[in-house]
Specification:
The protein is built from twelve helices and eight strands. It is of the alpha/beta class. It has one domain: 3-Layer(aba) Sandwich (Rossmann fold), CATH 3.40.50.11550. Strands 2-1-8-7-3-6-4-5 form an eight-stranded mixed β-sheet, sandwiched between helices. Helix 8 runs antiparallel to helix 11. It is globular.
């Protein structure tokens, strides 16, 4: 009996050891040094704008967004506000109506242009904003206008009405085609005979519009946490570039999310993406 018990215990040792060292994610600073969620949250409140770059179907991104929302709000109270790429600017009215309790949830979810993963990934944050009277900014350009740029360049926007133009960044849209992110986008998507010079412009008008609505709502010492795909702020480009053009003195903190085969060390290719980088194991379950 003792022999059997000893064998069972020995078999359990390596299994337990492996399980104890399984990590879902690890936080790093821009230089590849390991850091903690506590340090990231503490640093966040020393900035005007926190740009949280997610992987859209990554549950760790969404969980940390929710936790950071609660922690910043609990620390600074009424100065806190939210913004997100996932809500288009022409949906601000219905978003406000829902947050103020003027319309029920069923009407909001039926009539707003919500992403397919809204209920799994963003609903908890929106409900938290509603329950705590937190302003939530719908910052993204209406997709139909981004599609216009993709087809006809920035010039296509000049045909819009004055009302339509209130939903996008002021014309002319600031654009630097030499920014590495925009150049890579063009290189990665081009096909022989199908090169679309307008594709990075469509990305730029999204970045410019999000920066525009972020900037317009940062008032009275407010701090905004803004949610978006990581590519909109990686390498301090995209939204960051546009925000700096609007006000180079404001304090901006960026967070990025990446997936790696191991979370113990930050790959050299991911260093410098943001002030804080969330490394998630690539085997993590996806939300869609």
């Amino acid at each position: 009996m003792k022999t059997i018990l000893t064998i069972i215990l020995l078999l359990n040792v390596p299994i337990t050891t492996i399980a104890q060292h399984k990590k879902a994610y690890q936080l790093f600073d821009a230089y590849g040094n390991k850091t903690t969620y506590h340090k990231m949250a503490e640093q966040a409140i020393n900035n005007d704008i926190i740009l949280f770059g997610e992987i859209h179907n990554n549950p760790i991104s969404h969980w940390l967004q929710y936790e950071l929302t609660k922690d910043i709000h609990n620390k600074i109270g009424k100065k806190f506000l939210l913004g997100a790429e996932m809500f288009e600017s022409d949906n601000q009215l219905i978003l406000n109506e829902y947050l103020k309790g003027l319309i029920p949830e069923r009407n909001f979810e039926a009539e707003a242009k919500l992403w397919n993963n809204y209920k799994t990934d963003y609903k908890t944050i929106v409900k938290y904003a509603k329950e705590n009277s937190i302003s939530f900014i719908a910052s993204n350009i209406p997709r139909r206008y981004a599609a216009m740029v993709n087809r006809g360049g920035f010039e296509a926007l000049e045909a819009l009405s004055d009302k339509a133009l209130t939903y996008i960044a002021p014309l002319p849209v600031m654009y630097d085609p030499e920014l590495p992110g925009y150049k890579r986008m063009l290189e990665m998507t081009q096909m022989p005979g199908h090169r679309n010079e307008n594709l990075p412009k469509a990305q730029a008008v999204k970045d410019a519009t999000m920066a525009h609505f972020i900037q317009n709502n940062i008032k009275n010492d407010a701090i905004m946490l803004h949610l978006h795909g990581a590519y909109h702020s990686n390498n301090y480009e995209g939204i960051v570039w546009h925000l700096n053009k609007l006000d180079e003195d404001q304090k901006i903190m960026t967070i990025s999310t990446v997936e790696q085969s191991t979370v113990d060390k930050l790959d050299s290719s991911n260093q410098g993406l943001a002030y804080f980088i969330i490394v998630v194991t690539e085997t993590m379950t996806k939300t869609y």
